[in-house]
Design a protein that fits this description.
22 strands, 2 domains, 5-stranded mixed sheet, globular, mainly beta, single chain
Length: about 300
């Protein structure tokens, strides 16, 4: 199951997605290198609750400004991380407000910056901002309200929205590095009960792997503006990857209907091949819409092209 959310300024819709497949989720044999034919997959999303519906939109507990992440635990509690104000709110399975967790600050249980990612697992709530704060439920609480520990994030911090993972008692923190004119390097830093373990899981290098870095231009001394989507050619293949619940990496270069699964040492466990069908032609209307959007982004930068990083 995967919990997703569609957000508006004051309304949040939580859905549960269930992936049904006969080929992708079965247990893997030790050292297996087999190529599997992918069966048909079906993804079904069912709306489980709506938070901020008519009649309660005017109260602070149900108004959202800039939702960064949504998570749910096995008890059905829903956690929403918002940037304004920096906080995590807890809701019941039906969307009823229960409590606030944390606030902006530098003390225990407070968020430096804002919470950019949250993960609920094994009775704990992991909140990532400029550091990772781990909450658990006190003896009298139905939700994680007490700080267990706070982990410092390594200097190559990634404060984006990529989802962290939890597997076999290990918290996997997503990060990346890049240099100009080079492909990004993605990885997971492993956190154990005492913090960073010194171990790293690397995402294999793939063609078409890019995080879509934005263009940047200076507005004044010491400040600037970023515009997304200017370094990606429209309709160009883009690689995709993620970590599974088993702690393995799945990835595709986006150029063919093929997915590979890797262990944490970068060795291929298996390859999943889909049907060898040709690519769908891009319609004229779709291409025109995409190019118009790209032109608007370019024209929004009031400096010469040479000054656009």
């Amino acid at each position: 199951m995967d919990f997703n959310a569609l957000t508006a300024t004051s309304r949040l819709v939580v859905a549960v997605s269930t992936l049904v497949t006969s080929g992708c989720d079965r247990p893997l044999g030790e050292g297996s290198r087999a190529t599997d034919a992918a069966a048909s997959d079906t993804v079904t999303a069912v709306v489980t609750s709506t938070i901020g519906s008519t009649g309660i939109e005017g109260t602070d507990e149900y108004v959202f400004a800039d939702v960064q992440s949504v998570a749910a635990d096995h008890a059905g509690l829903i956690y929403v991380a918002d940037r304004i104000p920096p906080s995590v709110r807890v809701y019941g399975p039906a969307g009823d407000f229960i409590a606030w967790i944390g606030r902006e600050g530098e003390g225990p249980g407070e968020f430096m910056g804002w919470p950019s990612d949250i993960l609920a697992d094994e009775g704990n709530l992991y909140v990532r901002g400029q550091r990772v704060t781990v909450f658990t439920a006190s003896a009298t609480s139905e939700y994680p309200d007490s700080v267990v520990t706070t982990w410092r994030i390594p200097p190559f911090a990634n404060l984006g929205h990529e989802r962290a993972r939890f597997n076999a008692g290990v918290y996997y923190y997503p990060g990346y590095t890049f240099r100009r004119d080079e492909s990004e390097h993605y990885f997971y830093v492993k956190f154990g009960p005492n913090g960073v373990t010194g171990d790293t899981v690397h995402v294999p290098a793939f063609r078409n792997l890019t995080g879509g870095r934005p263009a940047f231009y200076m507005v004044s001394q010491g400040s600037g503006r970023m515009v997304d989507g200017l370094n990606i050619a429209p309709f160009a293949p883009r690689a995709a990857w993620d970590m599974t619940g088993r702690g393995t990496i799945i990835a595709s270069d986006g150029d063919a209907y093929q997915i590979q699964e890797f262990d944490q040492d970068g060795q291929v466990i298996r390859t999943i091949d889909g049907p060898s069908s040709g690519r769908r032609a891009v319609s004229g209307a779709e291409r025109a819409d995409s190019m118009a959007a790209l032109e608007l982004r370019i024209d929004s930068i009031p400096v010469p092209l040479a000054a656009r990083g």
